[in-house]
Amino acid sequence: MQIAKFKIKKVLFISIEPGEDVLDRLNVIIKEKKIQTATVLSAYGTFDKIHLHWVTTTDFPPVEFYEKDQGPYEVLSIGGVIVESIPHLHVTVSNKEGAYGGHLHEGCRVLYVFEMTLGILDGPYMYRELIPERKIKRLIIEKKK
Known about the structure:
Blueprint: E1 7-16, H1 22-32, E2 37-55, E3 64-83, E4 86-95, E5 98-104, E6 109-122, E7 126-131, E8 136-141
Antiparallel strand pairs: 1-6, 2-3, 2-5, 2-6, 3-4, 4-5, 7-8
C-alpha cells in the first residue's frame, strides 16, 4: 500500500460542448494547461454515445469487455486521476433500463451538457509501472524530492 499527501493548488471547472468527445477534449485541456497530476472532484452530464470497458475475470491478466452504445445516457458520476498527463477515468451512466459503469474511452460524446471539476495536485511524483507477469500497470508514488 502507498499513501501520500497532496495539496490542491488549483481547481479547474470544465464545460464541454454538445457533440464533443469528452476524453478527446480532456486530453486537449491537459496538454494546453500542462496538467501533470490531478484528481476528478466531480463530473456530470449527458452522453448520446458511450464507449466503456470493464473486466470480466478475476485472473491475471484481466480479460476486458468493450462496449459502444447509443444514448441517451445520464452521467451520474466520474471518478479518477490524471497521472503523467494521462487520464484514468471510470464513469457511471444510466438510462431508462438502469445504471452501469466502467472505464471511460474515446467515443463518449456529450448530448446536452457535460461539466467537470479537476483538482490540480501538488505533491509527490506519481507514475504507472507495468507488472509484466500480471500485464497490468500499478500506480507508484515517489517521495517529493
